[in-house]
Design a protein that fits this description.
By secondary structure, the chain is mainly β. It is built from one helix and 13 strands, in the order βββαββββββββββ. It is elongated.
């Protein structure tokens, strides 16, 4: 795999790099590298249980008692968590909860504080 994008016009995988643009040898289509970079995947928007947009560094509040897997501990309703980090995956939030430690949470069980 060359790491170059397929041709947006014909889908050919045989594109090549020509300094400031990409060229498709099969259909002769030329397009700029900037167009490829901006047309990539859109950034995911993370929303809490009430639809408020979350960003890295926000403070959140837990809205449901959450059992900690592999432990007898419970994260209680109203627990405030500071300085969250948003990540890709099943659990969207990476954080550190006082008294429990590092943990991953789902956005559907929190609200922005």
């Amino acid at each position: 795999m060359s790491g170059l994008p397929n041709c947006p016009k014909c889908g050919s995988e045989y594109t090549y790099d020509d300094s400031i643009q990409y060229v498709c040898p099969e259909c002769a289509h030329e397009w700029s590298k900037d167009a490829v970079e901006t047309s990539g995947e859109e950034e995911r928007v993370y929303k809490d249980a009430h639809g408020t947009v979350l960003v890295d560094g926000d403070s959140i509040t837990v809205i449901k008692d959450l059992k900690v897997k592999g432990s007898s501990s419970v994260v209680k309703v109203g627990t405030k968590v500071k300085n969250i980090r948003l990540i890709e995956g099943d659990h969207d939030i990476d954080c550190k909860i006082d008294g429990i430690g590092p943990m991953k949470l789902k956005t559907e069980f929190v609200k922005k504080a």
